[in-house]
Amino acid sequence: MRVIFAGTPDFARIALEHLLAAGHAVPLVLTQPDRPAGRGMKLQASPVKQCALQHGIAVAQPRGLRLDGKYAEDAAAAQAAIDSAQADVMVVAAYGLILPQWVLDTPRLGCLNIHASLLPRWRGAAPIHRAIEAGDQETGVTIMQMDAGLDTGDMLLIEKTPIGMADTTARLHDRLAEIGGRLIVDALQQAASGSLKATAQPAEGVSYAHKIEKAESQIDWSESAEVIARRVRAFDPFPGASTQLGADVIKLWSCEIDSCPRPPDGRCGQILHIDGKGIAVACGNGSALRLTALQRAGGKRLPAADFLRGFALAPGMVLGGSA
Question: How many CB atoms lie within 10 A of CB 39?
Answer without folding.
Answer: 5
